[in-house]
Fold each of these.
Amino acid sequence: MTSSDIEHFAVLEELVHEIKTL
């Protein structure tokens, strides 16, 4: 896993969290 992959995953998780709080 590259650092860019981890960054992408972190952004995805943030998005999911935002959707869940809506």
Amino acid sequence: MSRLIDLILVHILVLASIADKLVRMDVSFKMTGVNTVYPQPVVNFKADGQIWKQWYENSHEDCKEFLFGCYECNPPCKQGPTKTVDFVGGARIQLFPHTGKLDFNDGVSTSLDFGLVAAFNRELTSIWASLGLAPSDTETAPYRSVPEQLLLKKVITESSYAIYFNAGANPSGELILGGDDPSKRAGALNYLKIVDAESHFVRVLGLAIGSDPKNTILIGMPAVLDTGASHIIMDEKFKRQVIAFLQTAGAKKVQIEEKGVNFVISCADAPNLPSMTFLMEGLKGEKIPLLINAASLVQKVRRNVCYMRIAFKDYEDAIFLGASAFLGRYLYFDLGNTKIGFANV
């Protein structure tokens, strides 16, 4: 598995403000070329991980049609030594280093070092700009995460960060760099133990579907809280049991049809789906329930056709809990103290 899954990617789109040593950026959900079915969580950022305009347009694509936009150097930048970055699923990009100015609200500006994408091994329209949040290491060198750079420049006072997503038909939220904002959450945080300090995995002990304890699946696997992903990804070995329980453990039985990599349900039946509760490992080994309601499990794609926001792939190393697991949640990533907290928004 690629080490870079721990970057916890948040894609790029709206605006930032600074107050009380916290850097805030609004989060929204947009359709991107990365995923043609599910909208991705995106924030507005003007530097880190941007696409190099010269390379992109030389490849016969128009930056004006590209959701993430392109980074244009002034004066024109020259490609330097490149670094190859591999992602889960086989995507591979090449970056070269650049330094540019980053402007926040309230007249605060700072320079940042970042990478410009200069090569991609897939269809160009599926490339993305990404914001790395997790601490840097030897594999990500010479690049440092945005929180680390802001901390070094004393724009923020700590490298922890939070993100929350409001639930609803058009979910939105906020990325908060530099600490925790208790005013954005309801009550105390439930803390999960980071079981792999290098990859920042937590652990899933089990999965309860619906309210009947008999519909509980033992898991015992690491998990990635991947706030930049759009949906939940589990190993193929859990597919049969999970789909069977989703069809029978709700208010009424429903039919879920597998079509390729997607699972299709009538939107009229979606309210009858059961909840999914991932049983997470707490700081002392206790079970911490992370409940996902039925509304967060589906995505309407056209009239009365909904897709389940869950996929099954040959990923034996970890479960990926994407944004669909966190709608209505506030997450606080205190990686320096090897814990991640969550609460209701």
Amino acid sequence: MGTPGLLMPSRIGRRTMRIWAIALTVAAFSPLVIWPNLWRNAFSTQFLPHIYCYLRDQQLIWLHLVSDTLIGVAYVAISFTLVYLIRRARRDIPFQWMFLAFGLFIISCGMTHFMEVVVLWKPVYWFSGDVKVVTALASVATAISLPRLVPRTLALIHTARLSEDRGIKLEEANRRLEQLNQELIERDQMKTALIRRNMAGMASWEWDIQNDTIHWIDDPFPLFGRNAMELRSIRRLEAAVHPEDRERLQNVIKKLLESGEEYESEYRTLSPNESVRWLTARGHMHRRADGTPERLLAFVIDITNRKQAEEALRTSEKLATAGRLAATIAHEINNPLEAITNLLYLLRSDPGNKELLSMAEQEVARLGHIAKQTLGFYRQNPNPVRINLMDTLEGVLVLFANKLQTRSVKIERRYDFKGELRVNSGELRQVFSNLIGNALDAMNSGGRIVVHTALAESSYVGPSARITIADSGLGIPAENLKRIFQPFFTTKKDVGTGLGLWVTNEIVQKHGGVIKIKSSTNPARHGTVFMIWLPLDVPQQRSSAA
């Protein structure tokens, strides 16, 4: 292929450069030999200098003097720059002889301008003409040579463009290759992580019964929250099992040692950080010839996800049953509620009862709303209204006044925010009633409840009102905190339904808010804090599918 060869610059050595320089110089000064008068009369001064032609006008003289001097200096500087460039990069510059021709042409032009300065005072017009002849020859030689270089120059430009395009394509190909390589690395990492995750869901072990030593083949930490050294005996393994399942597992192992060969069991593990995992265990007992148990080979598989799915299904079935029951209850209590409302209306004729009757009517209305809400808790309420947050909290606290006094519980109010919120007033009163009621239930005798409102900036809901209800009760155990908002979960045994905090959480979320809980059972500093963030303005409540 001929095109790539055009990329190779013309390289000449110092000797070749000298030959070119001598040839150009001889060509430039050859007219002096052919035309003797050019050099014989070179320094003749029989003419008048230009200064007389300018009539000794100082401004005109200085104009020509300065202009010609600057042009000459510039030409000489350009020529020396070209020579320096050729000397420094002579191996990489194509058409070096053309650069030399340009240099001779340019320096000749500079000399003509210097001669214009000289003839202002010295009439050496023949010498000035000699310089112009040299300049003319250098110019003509350069002009004749240039057209011959045009095709090669264009070819070089075209080749350079092709090279640049190839470079761009090569760079793009390299970038794509790096991207593919990175994707392969990520896929390999994902595959490795998947394998590790699958392996993390299973662990096998061997129990040397004679020495009571367990040898773990796989890492037990993901399943038990403990390393192999912490589970090196059967007693330590049993200690890692959830207390409610420990006795059952001990009975299984006891029967296996007595007469069994195969065993299968399900139990929960409780890690030091109190996380719970469900495991299914299977094993085979190896015995000596006399029937004495020698070793047990077993493996455990993590079935936590399956158990959680089963629990979710059971909860769903409970909710469906509760929904049908709630529909019946709501239907049965609606008629008595209407009768009570009518009677309260008749009692309003006594002025002394108006305030108490008004509060009673509000609570009856709230009870009616709860009945309707029970029929369709997730239905969108079409009429949210603006309520004063402080007034709403005070209205709820009044309902618990007798209970607060009986139990010697003090209320500490800190209303840093006294503005309005656009909410469903009945639902919000129900939230506050549930939380304050729970706080009272946590304190049998004496204590303190803090009710605090403030403006806040929440990462969950943005600009919001924060409502804090804190008590100095016994606190909630850490293992119950994760389930506190689940339906039907209760710590009140016979008196609790397990729906209060679930309903509270659902109402807060329905209003676009968030509820958080902190609790401590430490005797030195026990109590529970509920914090609710509600948007300052909720144009439309969130709805959920029933």
